[in-house]
Amino acid sequence: MKIKAFAAVALTLILAFSLCACSEKNQSGVDVDIDMSEDEAEIEYEGEYSKELVGTTINVFNWGEYIPDGTEGSLDINKAFTELTGIKINYTTYESNESMYSKLKGGGVSYDIIIPSDYMIERMKKEDMLQKIDTSSLSNYKYIAERYKDLYFDEKNEYSVPYCVGMVGLIYNSAMISEKPDSWGAMWDKRYNDNILNFNNPRDAFAVAQLYMGYDLNSSDYSQWDSAAEKLKEQKSILQSYVMDEIFQKMEDGEAAIAPYYAGDFLLMKDNNSDLEFVYPKEGVNIFVDSICIPKSSKNYKAAMMYINFLLEPEIALEVAEYVMYASPHTGVIENDDYSLKDNEYLYPSEENYPRVQYFHDIPEKTRMYYERLWEDVKLY
User: Which residues, listed in sequence order, are joined to residue 232 by a DSSP beta bridge?
Assistant: First the structure.
């Protein structure tokens, strides 16, 4: 069960009024119909929110399990936003950057909010698929930590607002593995025959082999991609399966011994299986920043901006960090003593224990098409 916490800087208890449907004024002085839970009643928002867009619907496209939804004691963030502003949310999910990109590229669907990873933001920006975000109009943008600004994929902070940060490492079941692994080489260890999982998407799967072989994750050298593909084919004989969200069940139920995945998701899995452990391999790891963007196809820019500012509310950002268990780029979270994961070694490793990291970049289309063809060969091998 995740721990609920609230930002001390913004917390004001207002439990004196009835928690049933009633009318209250938000900070902009507009009458707001409220039907709040006890947790929602405890929140005082720092930004100003009006009902001028009541009845508007925004389409939000996000990763699965990537926003508190009222389960496991969490606040239902989308519901809270609707109750505050009257803006309805049509919320759908995807399981990879590539599937999200294909959906938008195919057209026919208009999204107002998406949350891609760094390299995909770089690609979509190049292809003119994103609208600029006026961060000066976001009162809560001040909470984004400086280390997550001016990054390679958005050097002028014009197209994205950081949401969550993470790194990939090795999850292993200590009841099934006799010694703590320290290398990506464990993914090719025959002792774990039929107990190894790998990513079911080309960029992440290739990265495991590339890191193990000492290659640049953004290499334009086709021979390195060839070698990585051969390494993945070599792994096939002892691999149980390629997975994405299926990893949760398999690792939590002890159906597999080792798998690469995101540190935040490891913490979720460990809640359900205490035998699970995690390590950042010595060869290095992929680091990523997932950020909020507004696609060019958006028809509700103003409502989307209000939603972004809402996600940056200190208490809302804290709810996100506690629920998704990824590292937060939000100083109101990082500096909050009530944040249960503040000192977590996997999310916030000390400088002396910080792994070698590489970001994914948007590599040239010809290289991307080349490794995608290699991936098809690997899957069919």
Answer: none
Is 166-284+355-380 the same fold as 22-159+290-334? yes
Tokens 């917390």 -> residue: 11
What pLDDT does 24 receive?
37
Taking the CA of residue 28 as centre, how many other CA atoms within 13 Å lie in the half-sphere pointing to its CB? 11
For residue range 186-231, what is the model confidence (pLDDT) as tens digits? Answer: 999 999 999 999 999 999 999 999 999 999 999 999 999 999 999 9
Fold for domain 22-159+290-334?
D-Maltodextrin-Binding Protein; domain 2 (3.40.190)
Tokens 């003119």 belong to residue: 128
Q: What is the pTM of this model?
A: 0.85
What pLDDT does residue 108 have? 84
Q: Which whole-number Å values give the CA distances from 356 to 145, 215, 344, 352, in the listed order? A: 21, 13, 18, 11
> Residue 65: pLDDT band by 50, 70, 90 thresholds?
confident
| Phi, psi for 304 (deg, rounded to 5) | -65, -40
Q: Options 3.30.70.120, 2.30.42.10, 3.40.190.10, 1.10.510.10; which CATH number does 166-284+355-380 get?
A: 3.40.190.10
Of 199 and 43, more confident: 199
Q: How many CB atoms lie within 10 A of CB 344?
A: 15
